[in-house]
């Protein structure tokens, strides 16, 4: 695949207790980018993980080189939004990829994001679990129902023009992400939703690529009543303010 | 205008149109059949929307793809990654 040598892709990996998964996701990222011939860097923003994530990150920096693996840690858990801002300060690419570091997002989709971006000259390319052959693995019926239900309510209320609002596997033009970070104020799932809503308000174009989301955290309920309540509060806030 | 604003405007417009037509004073009323259909219309629309919602969410739930192959492929790649990284000197 012909690569535009002027483009560089900065992958932002906020991590917290990802000692097990970080080497694996970095290995996959390096392989994917080397195969596709694109210029890249991986910025690891660890929030003071107590499980030794930073040790593993330092080893990866030695193996792959400090020009490809950039360690930009923070002293403690300071939130995803600020992790992106912090990471972007050190990013030398003109495109930013944001994704989860726990292998729920597979780097193999990044070349597809890049292809889609070129195809439509999009400002943002968002991975979607809800369209095409996108999907999930490891979710029970209840989890899927909550997901589809929440997405339906979001579509009705916000009419966002994107099928997967709470997804966090996306490619942004760097200046677009910077602009959006200035404007977004929410936290958690709602933060990802707000990015898309604000992007539409500002007239940015959004392309979509189906992705598979592999949830390996079996048995651990990541979606409790509290999360649902705060999601709804955040959704209603966006409904009333955007 | 915010989405909430749009919804309020929409409801205000439709609501006042409905009220004007359905609750008009005797002199300005539409023929009886029309009024009989118009009065419960908001409730009918609500019920229709409720059915549409259930059907849509139900359909999307049933057609939610399960990525079996992706999970299997990932497992293989994890093994390959661990082997290669050990070779390169990573201490897990």
Automatic annotation (TrEMBL), chain A:
GO biological process, one term: dolichol-linked oligosaccharide biosynthetic process
GO molecular function, one term: dolichyl-phosphate beta-D-mannosyltransferase activity
EC code(s) of this entry: 2.4.1.83
InterPro entries cross-referenced by the UniProt entry: DPM1-like, Glyco_trans_2-like, Nucleotide-diphossugar_trans
Pathway: Protein modification; protein glycosylation
Cross-referenced Pfam families: Glycos_transf_2
Cofactor(s) the record lists: Mg(2+); Mn(2+); Ca(2+)
Domain Glycosyltransferase 2-like residues, every copy: 10-180
A Gene Ontology cellular-component term: endoplasmic reticulum membrane
Family: Belongs to the glycosyltransferase 2 family.
Function summary: Transfers mannose from GDP-mannose to dolichol monophosphate to form dolichol phosphate mannose (Dol-P-Man) which is the mannosyl donor in pathways leading to N-glycosylation, glycosyl phosphatidylinositol membrane anchoring, and O-mannosylation of proteins; catalytic subunit of the dolichol-phosphate mannose (DPM) synthase complex.
Quaternary organization: Component of the dolichol-phosphate mannose (DPM) synthase complex.
Protein name per Swiss-Prot or TrEMBL: Dolichol-phosphate mannosyltransferase subunit 1
Protein's organism: Bucco capensis (collared puffbird)
UniProtKB/TrEMBL annotation, chain B:
Location (main, coarse): endoplasmic reticulum
Domain of life: Eukaryota
Any one GO CC term of the record: endoplasmic reticulum membrane
GO molecular function: glycosyltransferase activity
Cleavable signal peptide: 1-19
Bilayer-spanning residue ranges: 43-62
UniProt keyword terms in alphabetical order: Endoplasmic reticulum, Glycosyltransferase, Membrane, Signal, Transferase, Transmembrane, Transmembrane helix
Compartments where located: Endoplasmic reticulum membrane
Pathway: Protein modification; protein glycosylation
InterPro entries listed in its UniProt record: DPM3
Membrane topology according to the record: Multi-pass membrane protein
Example GO biological process: GPI anchor biosynthetic process
Role: Stabilizer subunit of the dolichol-phosphate mannose (DPM) synthase complex; tethers catalytic subunit to the ER.
Subunit structure: Component of the dolichol-phosphate mannose (DPM) synthase complex.
Protein family according to the UniProt entry: Belongs to the DPM3 family.
The protein, known as: Dolichol-phosphate mannosyltransferase subunit 3
Origin species: Bucco capensis (collared puffbird)
Gene: Dpm3
